[in-house]
Design a protein that fits this description.
- The chain starts with about 35 loop residues before the first strand and ends with a helix.
- About 10% of the residues lie in helices and about 30% in strands.
- The protein has one domain: Endonuclease - Pi-scei, Chain A, domain 1 (Beta Complex).
- The radius of gyration is 18 Å and the shape is globular.
- It has a 5-stranded antiparallel beta sheet with strand order 2-1-8-14-3, covered by helices on one side. The protein has a 3-stranded antiparallel beta sheet with strand order 10-9-13, with no helix packed on it. A two-stranded antiparallel sheet has the order 4-5.
- With about 250 residues, it is of the alpha+beta class.
Amino acid sequence: MPHREPIAHHHPKQRSTAWTVRRVPNTFAMPPLSERYQAMWLGADGEIDDCVRMGPRVPLFTQSFGALARGAIVPTAQGPVAVEDLLPGMRVATSQGPETLLWIGSQTLVPNGRRRPLYRIPAEALGLGRPSFDLVLGPAARIVSRSGTLRDRIGSEAALIPVEAMTDGMTVIEVAPISSVQLFHLGFASHRTLSVSGVELESVHPGRIDASIGRELLSLYMSMFPHLDGPAGFGKLAMPRLSLDEAGQLDAA
């Protein structure tokens, strides 16, 4: 097992949830545009628009389009709806109250002999009704943790944990798809959490955008979110996020 530094048990540090971006440099080598990304959004005129773009397989993109697999159930004002049947403009029940769904992103995960895992959570593996039935998540999914140790560790009562960090072969199982799988992510006016098939997950948010991506790639990324007035339109994170290493340290503490 790799050595992990222990997490300090004193002077809890409050994590910032603010959106930040450093100055983007003028020169950057654009990575190959190897992935197909699709977006639907609610326009200012109340009409639904959509676009398809080829983009790179880099975390900024994959983390914004690959959270929920087909069949995930989302609570709406019309009742439970499968994620693939959602449309922008629908009212969705979030943990912060009813919200208008403004954006839906999707991508098709194609194995192609590469490691591109999904994560299956069996019915009630995380507790009663969590999930209500088997739930399959993409690698971009983050699950809300309300562990009693979080405040002592990071100064917050709740945090977002990458689904990969929760893999244990029993409650969260890594699976290798043998055929193409369509994945989705959802966006609201601000960062939200919502119960998907009984498991609390986050909506889309790029987090801290690294300056090294360059202006051209940032422009391509934002072209998938035309309803937003620039990167600052994502707003603040609803709660802190933990990295894979940080989540592992939390479990080991």
